[in-house]
Amino acid sequence: MFSCEKRLSSGCLRAKRREWFFNADIRRAEKVVGKSINLALSHRGRTALRAVGLEKHIVAEGIPMRARMIHSLDETTHPVPYGTREDHFIISIDRRRLNEVMLTLAESQPNVTLHFGHKLVRCNLHTGRMLFQLSDNINERVEKFADSIIGCDGAHSAVRDAMLKQAGFQYQQEYIEHGYIELVTPPTKNGEYAMPPNYLHIWPRMTFMLIALPNLDKSFTTTLFMPFDKFSQLRSPETVVDFFRTTFPDALNLIGEESLVKDFLGTKPSSLISVKCKPYHFGKAIIIGDAAHAMVPFYGQGMNAGFLDCLRLDELLEEYNGNFERVYPEFTRRMQINSHAIIDLAMYNYIEMRYLVNTRSFLIRKKVDNFLYRLFPNTWIPLYTMVTFSLLPYSECMKRKKWQDTVLRRGVRIGIAMVVLLAYYRFGPRPPVRMYINAFKSAVKDWFYELRVRRFELNRNELIGMP
Ligand code: EGO
Q: Looking at CB atoms within 10 Å, which of 79, 200, 211, 236 has the fewest?
């Protein structure tokens, strides 16, 4: 999706003509391949939708998920609430519906034109020239000129490709070893949800992760994350069913063997890519959303971060009276560290979730987090809660999490030291008490010194620019 801005009367943003170009019209697509069917909408995404008057509409078409439902290997389930407040829920929303609503609103704007079947093949960031290939006729090319180009054309952005050739553009991408496929958990024979609907269902199994999000038609979209290696090992109906029987027994019952085998062997697993780059603008062009910061899906923030880009860009355009030359660098300046932070957080989750040894460790982590949150609701906000239910910049969420970790570590060490000290005082030889006190004092001093060093190193690492 690209916007080409044409100033009709300079200065006034509303009067500006905006043209948007799309590869395809998702509303008319048979099936959207290689993209997940549902998306998790949370506070950041909702805030952006609210700004364009779409929040109520979209929320009404989504399904609230108020807790995770953890599925253990022994087929027991454990709900863990997302928060303490009534409004602490995330929303499962259908990608196609979401696009329908947004496209229909965009189309109704007098200054907006949508062009479908236009695939960007080349663009000049400095002249604003864009060359499109038409899907109706592959040999036909269309040329357009714009005052400004907004590239929100996804993880494999063509606008970003043009930036790659610019001196000073930093770029880093990573394909992770996991791929994913989507399976369907159909409604029961009575036409009811096969599992409780208002949950994000998670089957944590170390390197294999299964999640299920509810749909309005009473089915669940069930996504399996697994290393590509493993996908290529499971090539026959028997091995697939066996794998599910030993790894996700309850899910196998709900999906059904026949449909599992059909979906599993009939679809090629999609890959997951993480992209960091800097800056987000060159000449007349800027990139936002996945084009600027594609991330792995293990935080459920990709769409939310993209929508927030739109809101922040719009606010800046307002603030600088539509002056792109000033808006674009400012956008990069403000968004960069936060985009990088959520990319890292998503990647940490990918690693962290894999190394959770079993469902129990997952549960314990979540329960300890929630417990501390109840105890200190203003100071000890779990990372997931900050990221999902607040507008605190992603980099701030990360900083607070680091602080929590340090406090926790310090607390544990002081606790251990106290116990050792008391035991020694009680059972050990008995030199003067003052010696113990001095030893304790210098130990505390050492810890604080170590903390300062670590904080300095953290900051220094953050300062060394690129990712
Ligand atoms: C310890 C345990 C530390 C996406 C668990 C961190 C992500 C991470 C992919 C869930 C929820 C929306 C999602 C939680 C953690 C969507 C999400 C979470 C997945 C996978 C996902 C949670 C679509 C990480 N949010 N989340 O806490 O419930 O915790 F499981 Cl594979």
A: 236
Residue 327 Cα to ligand 1 middle (Å): 34
Residue whose CA is at the smallest distance from ligand 1 atom 22: 68
Q: Which of 90, 345, 349, 369 to mutate to test the pocket of ligand 1 (most atoms within 8 A of CB)?
A: 349
Q: What are the pLDDT digits (tens) for 221-266?
A: 999 999 999 999 999 999 999 999 999 999 999 999 999 999 999 9
Which amino acid, 46? R
Pocket test for ligand 1, best of 299, 345, 360, 368 (most atoms within 8 A of CB): 299
State the pTM of this model: 0.88
> Are 26 and 104 spatial neighbours (Cβ–Cβ below 8 Å)?
no
Cα distances (Å, whole numbers) of residue 252 to 72, 226, 247, 256, 298: 13, 16, 9, 6, 23
Angle at 360 between CA 244 and CA 40, to 5 degrees: 70
